[in-house]
Amino acid sequence: MSGLHWRRALVIGLGVSGVDACRLLRAKGVEVRAADRASREELAFRLAELPPEVEVHLGEVGPEVLADVDGVVVSPGVPPSAPLVQEAQRRGLEVIPEVELAFRFAGSTPIIGVTGSNGKSTVTELLGLVLKTAGFKVAVGANLGPAASGMVLRGGWEVMVWELSSFQLELTQSLRPKVAVFLNLSPDHLDRHGSMEAYRQAKAKIFAFQTPDDHAVINQDDPQVASLATRAQRHGYSLRCQDAEACFDGTHLMLQGRVLMARQALPLPGDHNVANALAAALACRVFGLDRDAIVAGLRAARSLPHRHELVAEINGVRYVDDSKGTNVGAVVAGLSGYPPRRVHLILGGLSKGQDFRELIPAVRERVLRAYLIGQAADELEKALTGVVPVEKCGTLEEAVRIAHLCALPGDVVLLSPACASFDQFHDYAHRGHEFARLVHALAGEENA
């Protein structure tokens, strides 16, 4: 499906995605009405970016904004259960997410889509880096960075790499990546989706509209991913299974039965990043890149901000920011890269309906002491009491202070919260920056 046959559209949500959806629709000649619950003061920056012809409705918005509308574009933060979305569907209006809108105007530009509970941003950035190193004019974003509609509006790309969340995928109707990558699945966003199966099916929409001409890159180590159906050509990667198309033999990354590169040549820590590199390498290979181009890109990789990023080392203690570790699966995977019983782990925030008992095996093996913050502190305390010593700290500042007092040379103080940040911070990046500020203040005190 290409293009859109609407005269007037309603865009719900005026974040980055919503604003770019408005801009793309206007560029294509569609009249645009936009709605958001926020106030004019809260949205001043975003409103300044809108085309002047867009009709804006703010605050408590009723069904009257659906009058004379042919279709609705929904921003990722707006759930399908929102009353306005429900009313639009009741009226028989077409309701699509912003990434679907972008896809319909993407033309012949191929899209590589990446989803999964953990590692999406890293793999998306790896794909962009490898493609750029190989000489492609590539755009990287969607859930990560620029909105998909903004990329399409700018145009001129040879390939686009889109990180796709369950929020973006669940309402898609035709989105068809040339290469779709599904990394893993662990409990996340259950407060929105209601169940693991609903969450899984939302993610699985990345394969829903592919054809036998397309490619599906699948993690063979995750049964919930490996069992998904797809009409596309299947390509598996694995840390364990040596007959996978991309695998790890303990020393080398292997691709299609041959050594791709030595593990020590990949400048990213942890087994989870070996898996991320295998996924990116396999996706690039089925997209058509040669092995030398893939190796050159992977050798240039660097950890992303707030993803196991070393902030400082103070008196032999390393302070590491993994604020992007916003669910249990991410924390479990990340802990595998640290020495046993040397981690002082800062956990907490908004739980999103997760079962924190799934942390227990990794925490028991790797963590020396846990420091709990935010609204989920009570749930975490209940799950981890008796597994490791637990300190209920309330705030990140108090957690950093106590961890600093307890840690010994050779230990790691790791912020990897397993939770969303919105109870105490604007977002995970704000939480990570605050952690870094607190650590640097400690470093200053030690050096005074």
Average of per-residue pLDDT values: 94
Shape: globular
Largest sheet: 9 strands, mixed
Please give the domain count.
Answer: 3
Poorly predicted regions: none
Strand content: 15-25%
| CATH homologous superfamily grouping of the largest domain | Mur-like, catalytic domain
Number of strand elements: 20
What is the CATH topology classification name of the largest domain? UDP-N-acetylmuramoyl-L-alanine:D-glutamate ligase
Strand order, largest beta sheet: 7-8-6-9-10-11-12-13-14
CATH architecture assignment name of the largest domain: 3-Layer(aba) Sandwich
The helical percent reads 25-40%
Determine the structural class based on helices, strands and strand pairing: alpha/beta
Counting H and I runs of at least 4 residues, what is the number of helices? 17
Question: Roughly how many Å apart are the termini?
Answer: 64 Å
Rounded to the nearest angstrom, the radius of gyration is: 22 Å
Q: Identify the CATH class of the largest domain.
A: Alpha Beta
Function: Cell wall formation. Catalyzes the addition of glutamate to the nucleotide precursor UDP-N-acetylmuramoyl-L-alanine (UMA).
Pfam families: Mur_ligase_C, Mur_ligase_M, MurD-like_N
EC number: 6.3.2.9
Organism: Thermoanaerobaculum aquaticum
Describe the structure.
With 448 residues, the chain is α/β, with parallel strands linked by helices. It folds into 3 domains: 8-100, NAD(P)-binding Rossmann-like Domain (Rossmann fold, 3-Layer(aba) Sandwich), CATH 3.40.50; 106-299, 3-Layer(aba) Sandwich (UDP-N-acetylmuramoyl-L-alanine:D-glutamate ligase), CATH 3.40.1190; 309-447, Protein-Tyrosine Phosphatase, Chain A. Helix content is 34%, strand content 22%. The protein has 17 helices and 20 strands. The protein has helices spanning 16-27, 44-47, 83-90, 98-104, 120-133, 148-154, 166-169, 190-193, 196-204, 223-226, 271-287, 291-299, 328-335, 360-366, 377-384, 396-406, 428-447, and strands at residues 8-12, 31-36, 55-58, 71-74, 94-97, 111-115, 138-142, 159-163, 179-182, 215-219, 233-238, 246-248, 252-255, 258-262, 309-314, 317-321, 343-348, 367-373, 390-394, 412-415. It is globular. The protein starts with 7 loop residues before the first strand and ends with a helix.
